[in-house]
From TrEMBL:
Protein name, as recorded: GPN-loop GTPase 2
Function: Small GTPase required for proper localization of RNA polymerase II and III (RNAPII and RNAPIII). May act at an RNAP assembly step prior to nuclear import.
Keywords tagged on the record: GTP-binding, Hydrolase, Nucleotide-binding
Pfam families assigned to the protein according to its UniProt record, in alphabetical order: ATP_bind_1
Family matches, as InterPro entries: Gpn, Gpn2, P-loop_NTPase
Subunit structure: Binds to RNA polymerase II (RNAPII).
Family stated for the protein in its record: Belongs to the GPN-loop GTPase family.
CDD domains: GPN2
Keyword Hydrolase: yes
Length: 301
């Protein structure tokens, strides 16, 4: 059994930066991490890549050979990956024994709520390799500054949750930059908790473009509230505490915190219902102390 994350989200939401920062954090707290790049359009990887889809298929080759645009090419690549899932499985088999897996997927949102190829790839891997995965869906926090775009992000998040059928965490990424896009109409809790979207209607009416679709937007908000599934956590990938809080949520959702624990159903229930307070910081603190001691030794020497 292996654990990991399926990192998804629209282009520009920070998926690749997230995979880089998350892998560094997980290594710091003592986990062996393997990042798997499944985005054939991602040709500038800042992280060390354990498996790269470009070894199987390249988007540029697909576009040239089949006269496809970027979107059509990405759909073709996911379809090709699904048909050659044995290639990916063989690459992952040596890693699942002792690595935590980060899957960096393409940013084309249609792959995760219209097309089924990406979902089929994930489900086949889960079945064949006994994986425990959480979908981490990144949304750029600047969308909160525009009520119309925020509603669109909510609808996209809900559609993706229903389509993928995985443990799912929605994340407002780049939260440290949110104020640079303008003052929010409400407190941040309003956007993360998604409790009463009717308050958005007044602000939607202030924009001539949005006011034309007021009735449609109202109906969409009611759909989102009726499902009552969408909420967000926030993330500043450069802030250790912010990343750590997200890791705790992910570990609880995919069952990582239960790995190696033997006990009754009651004991498992207590852990599941308890606060997010397990101590992995101790490992990080020990490593930090070691690094500081080593720096001091070199400096004094």
């Amino acid at each position: 059994m292996a654990y990991g994350q399926v990192v998804i989200g629209p282009p520009g939401s920070g998926k690749t930066t997230y995979c880089d920062g998350m892998s560094q954090f997980l290594k710091l707290i003592g986990r062996k991490v393997a990042v798997i790049n499944l985005d054939p359009a991602n040709d500038a990887l800042p992280y060390e890549c354990a498996v790269n889809i470009e070894d199987l298929i390249k988007l540029s080759d697909v576009m040239a050979e089949h006269s496809l645009g970027p979107n059509g090419g990405l759909v073709y690549c996911m379809d090709y990956l699904e048909k050659n899932i044995d290639w990916l499985q063989s690459k992952l088999e040596p890693l699942v024994k002792d690595h935590y897996l980060l899957f960096d997927f393409p940013g084309q949102v249609e792959l995760f709520f219209l097309h089924s190829n990406a979902k089929k790839v994930i489900m086949k891997l889960i079945k064949k390799l006994d994986l425990r995965l959480t979908a981490v869906h990144l949304v750029d926090a600047h969308l909160c500054s525009d009520p119309g775009k925020y509603v669109s992000a909510l609808l996209l998040s809900l559609s993706t949750m229903l389509h993928l059928e995985l443990p799912h965490i929605n994340v407002l990424s780049k939260i440290d930059l949110i104020e640079s896009y303008g003052k929010l109409a409400f407190n941040l809790d309003f956007y993360t908790d998604v409790q009463d979207l009717s308050f958005l209607h007044y602000h939607l009416d202030q924009d001539p473009r949005s006011s034309k679709y007021r009735k449609l937007t109202k109906e969409l908000c009611e759909v989102i509230e009726d499902y009552s599934l969408v909420n967000f956590t926030t993330l500043d990938i450069q802030d250790k505490e912010s990343v750590g809080n997200l890791v705790k949520l992910i570990d609880k959702s995919n069952g990582y915190i239960f790995a190696g624990i033997e006990g009754s159903a009651v004991e498992f229930s207590k852990i599941a219902a308890g606060p997010l307070d397990w101590d992995y910081y101790r490992v990080a603190a020990v490593q930090e102390k070691y690094m500081k001691d080593e720096e001091n030794f070199v400096h004094n020497d």
